[in-house]
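--- STAGE predict ---
source: upstream dedup step, 1 unique chain passed
mode: sequence only
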Amino acid sequence: MRRARSNRSRGVSGSRPAGSGAAGAGRPLMEPIFRLAPDSPLAAGLTDGGGLVPLRAPGGWAVGHKQLTARRLPDGRCEANGSEDLFWARTAPPPWLAEVPPDEDVRRREPHLDAGWYAGTGFRLCLLAPDWDHVRSQHTATRPDGLVTTLETWMALVSRHGRLPRRCPPPGTGHTPP
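--- STAGE serialize ---
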């Protein structure tokens, strides 16, 4: 099942990171090519031919789109997929929470995770609960291992603990860990 992208295409506030596309004319454009530490688990999983980046998704998440791919380049760097549509998943409320009000357990709000690459800011991860009008947390990373770590941490926090990550500042203004 493909997600609805109507809010993003209409330019709803918060739907595009600052610095993406023509709006980021003052920023240097980034390419999705990185040097990873040789002992990095992500680097160990890459091949010359490329493929999906391994992710640990805990129970309770339905992955609707995963195109987070990377390959090892001949010079040892890695090249990641430079698409704005890299990953999308949502939770399904556990049946035992049917009587719990949505404000008491975040899993009743059916959070969504959306990740993409934006040439002006790097990787962007957004947690929406329940839609693009309600961006609860966002994170930018300039390296794919930072994106993967945050993505896995946020999924575990929501599915295992029923909590949202702390609010993160808008892209390009710094980083607040989950």
